[in-house]
Amino acid sequence: MLGSRRLHPLFPRRNTSRYCKIYFSQPYARDTARKHSATRCRTSEPLSRPAGLRKRLCPPHAQPSSFPMVRKIVRRYLILARGKFLDDAKTAHGVIAYGQDEISAIVDASLAGKTVRGVLPHLQCDAPICESVREGLQYHPTSLLIGVAPQGGALPQAWRSEILHAMDAKLEIVSGLHELISEDEEFAKAARRSGTEIWDVRVPPTVPLFSGAVYDVRVPTLLTVGSDCAVGKMTVALELARSAQKRGVNATFVPTGQTGVLIAGWGICIDRVVSDFAAGAAEQMVLEAAPESELLIVEGQGSIHHPAYGAVTLALMYGCAPDALVLVVDPTARTIANFEVPALGYPELVTAYEIALAPVKPARVVGIALKTLGLDARQARYEIERAREESQLPCDDVVRFGADALYDSIASEVRRTRPRTAAVPA
Amino acid sequence: MLGSRRLHPLFPRRNTSRYCKIYFSQPYARDTARKHSATRCRTSEPLSRPAGLRKRLCPPHAQPSSFPMVRKIVRRYLILARGKFLDDAKTAHGVIAYGQDEISAIVDASLAGKTVRGVLPHLQCDAPICESVREGLQYHPTSLLIGVAPQGGALPQAWRSEILHAMDAKLEIVSGLHELISEDEEFAKAARRSGTEIWDVRVPPTVPLFSGAVYDVRVPTLLTVGSDCAVGKMTVALELARSAQKRGVNATFVPTGQTGVLIAGWGICIDRVVSDFAAGAAEQMVLEAAPESELLIVEGQGSIHHPAYGAVTLALMYGCAPDALVLVVDPTARTIANFEVPALGYPELVTAYEIALAPVKPARVVGIALKTLGLDARQARYEIERAREESQLPCDDVVRFGADALYDSIASEVRRTRPRTAAVPA
Q1: Which residues in chain B are closer than 8 Å to A210, comparing Cβ atoms?
Q2: Domain housing B80
Q3: B276, B303, B304, B336: best to mutate for the A interface, most A CBs within 10 A
Q4: Are A182 and A285 found together in one domain?
Q5: pLDDT, tens only, B188-234
Q6: Which tens digits make up the pLDDT trace of A2-24?
Q7: DSSP assignment of A29-60, as one string?
């Protein structure tokens, strides 16, 4: 077994079962799952106001496989990343770097014979890279992780036979793709035949509408927001949570995307929730994580100026009602990727996020994390210095230089703020 | 037959079948519908850029009953609004005032024996109000419309037996509720038994991600935006479209909510679309309506400052990429309903909407429509004058005073604007 075992200060064992019981998405007979979800929602009702909103739940037909379940096993992942492991396997890299599960091997023929450490040393993992699923089976994986999250979300056709092969070998299939494996006729049939399970991580649980109950939470909440998708909002949240833990602060990483959910073992993929309920889903996660934490660090999604995903960003901002924001920026980008929307300067970007929240639940940007990947050390330092000068805020690249310095600079700024309240005349 | 028949200059017959073919949601065997939807999307692909985004479609499991279908019949509605017809039947009022279908009768025991004209003269409809569905059957309806859209979206328990009774009488059931009638076990069983059909209007069709293709549309697009939910954004859009038609402009009302879809016979309930695809849904509607129109007037949703639904508003703003906005305001509100978020003044509200769009696709607020319902004529005129002074924009109540004056004031301001484009260095 070459898989590495890591310590996870962010996810203390005592908490795991509690979160998992409520949020862990698992394959389960659809009707049974629905019945139980409905029962839980009717009996627990954690929200206190407003009464009129209590009973509306996100339509259950959108959540076929959410079910409370205690996570008992640690998985051993065979990660499918054909031809994409180096450049286009965000999910795989995240799970290797931060996840709780073991990594048995990677499937990417273009790198076969090497190890993860050999090609991506910063992931600190000695798992081998092999030609095919067939070859990977010798490392005794329990699960096949589809380790690629393309912008399109769809499963490349060429991968299907590899997945079917894994099913024949009775591996559990774990997927963060938009296209659900469990709803694919061929895969569903193969899974029934071989008796394997499918975990579509994106499928959200049943959640109520946003109620405002999050405003009564007393734990300070930090949200990472970004200049675009894929600039490192999740990584920054994880690294800051780790730094807080090192300082003895009981910080909890709150995952909102498929990689985050795979890493933390709980959470909701906010972009998959029906629009009307997206803010409610974010609120529920904060309500759930707050009681056992001293600091919540919420994984951001998209960017407020992204023409396709800006609404997901806003739902998360309103829903988790943060007290402070950390802005994550790719300083080399001139536009939003795939669109011609121009990248804003630091002051404009900071202002845009603060203005968006100001009328509802004010929060300030307290620091900026830069993604200087691709720049040399000198250029990186120059960009960080430039960001500091232009924004007058603490700035750093938490991957290149560690998150401790940035965390220390912003920690005292993350204090609970009040939502705006109208001066209603009596 | 007491139902009234109205002319609909907004929905010229020649257009109806085209829109209906693509967007009309209808009950249909789930698997067949999916197969056809998938085929349509693969073969038509109306989008030209960016290529990487083309293939990702909103997950089909969320759209069980969307299917292209030509609308051949005009319905005769029996409208179920038990005890709520006067004050809490937004959907019913909209369909009566603006819809293409006949109104056979209303079910509301608290008003039994009266007529719609007798209790709500402005709806200009002579349909009778009766005690129960049983009594309403004498007016030969074809369909039962669940004419209430509570904030919670859920179906009041007491209404269930009325719906079952209608099913036994072989009426089609048409519902705009979040809680799907077709997914309710008891209703689904009753529908199978009696052979009746169920149309859950909110169920969205399969749509692709936002692509930016909307930026190439040459038809000016006007979007109504609001200070809150339920301030009249749909009504203002309908009235402005009607005024434009009177001036010989081929204006098309683009519906984005359940009442709008019921009225126009096509459209997508944007709040029911999975977050990631909400902007894409709005874009698709504009692409669909543009070729046969000279002006698009898009029905707005929610409010950019609504803590629960603000993200739906932003998805619509980014997705339909409007050239101009008409702000719809309830001047008597001090907060967002059900929340303590303070209502903003006119200049702040105008600025907030313009700032939200500015970095992506600039659009100006060109006029303000006030909801002065509940004020007397003098107060209404005072509020309109105050809005005019504070905003320096054309202001009116289009329900109380008609939309012609407001339309004439803003028509020349609704011109095609370009999206912002980055000055990317060569």
Answers
A1: 307-308
A2: 69-200
A3: B276
A4: no
A5: 999 999 999 998 998 998 999 999 999 999 999 999 999 999 999 99
A6: 333 333 333 333 233 322 222 22
A7: -HHHHHHHHHHHHHHH----S-GGGTT-B--G
